[in-house]
Design a protein that fits this description.
The protein has 5 helices and 5 strands, in the order H-H-E-E-H-E-H-E-H-E. The protein has about 180 residues and is α/β, with parallel strands linked by helices. It has a single domain, classed as Rossmann fold (3-Layer(aba) Sandwich), CATH 3.40.50.1360.
Length: about 180
């Protein structure tokens, strides 16, 4: 499960107190109520300080697939076939791969005080180039982040392979800087 993955690969490495980790209740019998409860909990805590994200090969963030409304809040999504293929490596048996997930909505994500988008691997170079050269549009969910005042994008050489070699034009993002 995603809860197990986050505990094993992130929370336990940071020695975070359990009460400081928050994930949606995917095991709840009513997923819509779980989504509403998760959104309410975020608001009750004053919002999110940091949103750490990756990007899918189709430009999704969280599990917000292309054409997801930028005004979306925490919701249940049907995973695209591409997203299921991309995440299949986390499952020993493909039949165990979920068809649906709970995800923060794009509005929830962009309301975080700081956003860090980490992208690694040559297989992500094409979507990185699209992100840097495309307008903000719901067809590319990650493009919503381009308007965030405190966005940091971290790329390895593979992910940056299709960007100009001397440096890329960071002025296309309001608060970006090359480091």
């Amino acid at each position: 499960s995603y809860h197990y993955y986050m505990q094993q690969h992130l929370f336990s490495k940071l020695a975070l107190p359990r009460e400081n980790t928050h994930l949606p209740g995917g095991g709840d019998s009513d997923l819509e109520i779980a989504c509403q409860a998760y959104s309410a909990a975020i608001q009750a805590l004053g919002g999110m300080d940091l949103q750490l994200l990756g990007i899918g090969s189709n430009g999704h963030i969280g599990f917000n697939e292309p054409q997801t409304s930028f005004a979306s809040r925490t919701h249940v999504v049907e995973l695209s076939e591409q997203t299921r293929l991309d995440n299949g490596r986390f499952f020993a048996d493909q039949s165990e791969m979920p068809t649906h997930a709970i995800t923060l909505g794009i509005q929830d994500i962009v309301e975080a005080k700081e956003v860090v988008l980490m992208i690694t691997g040559r297989h992500k170079a094409e979507i990185v180039a699209q992100l840097f050269h495309s307008p903000v549009d719901e067809a590319l969910p990650a493009s919503a982040l381009k308007q965030h005042p405190h966005l940091t994008i971290v790329l390895d050489r593979g992910a940056a392979a299709l960007l100009p070699s001397q440096a890329f034009n960071v002025s296309s993002l309001p608060s970006a800087q090359a480091v």
